[in-house]
Amino acid sequence: MNVDANDILTDQFVDTNVLVYAHDISAGMKHTYARRLLQTLWKSKLGCMSIQVLQEFYANITRKVAAPLSASETAQVIQELAVWKIHTPEVNDILEAIRVQQRYQLSFWDAMIVWSAARLGCAIIWSEDLNHGQTYEGVRVHNPFADDSERGSG
Fold first, then answer.
1. Three-class SS of residue 73?
2. Residue-wise pLDDT tens digits, 2-34
3. Which of 5, 10, 90, 100 could serve as a FRET partner for 135 with CA atoms 20 to 30 Å apart?
4. Domain limits at 73?
5. Crossing angle between the packed helical segments 51-61 and 16-23, to the nearest 10 degrees
6. Is there a domain that residue 152 lies in?
7. What is the DSSP code (8-state) at residue 129?
8. Positive or negative torsion for Cα 143, 6, 16, 120
9. DSSP state of 58
């Protein structure tokens, strides 16, 4: 991981995939990298996410991974993350996400992630799903799992 969360001294948004890998012990090195990233964000108090991320995390970590967590284990993780800055979208946020979707040709759910990160004032979105190095609505995407060759000039 070329960019380190410690190098960025502003709020940083964690996408669902990173949160899932951090708790999926069957994810190999992605588990290690994601866990390290979350620990860094926890210590720095710069971690952010949205209600959408927490909902997707629950749905994925309890059913769609090789070593799923129980509902109670997942609820405990979500309870712990409640101290982070959490964006709770309202109707206007959905309308803005539609604008973001159309502007950048993203899926609606990715546009909601981008908009939530922007609304929270984040500088970074940590995500495997969005284009590494791309800036959307003033928020730059970093893929914590990409090596330097995959990143390009970013």
1. helix
2. 557 666 789 999 999 999 999 999 999 999 999
3. 90
4. 8-145
5. 40
6. no
7. S
8. negative
9. H
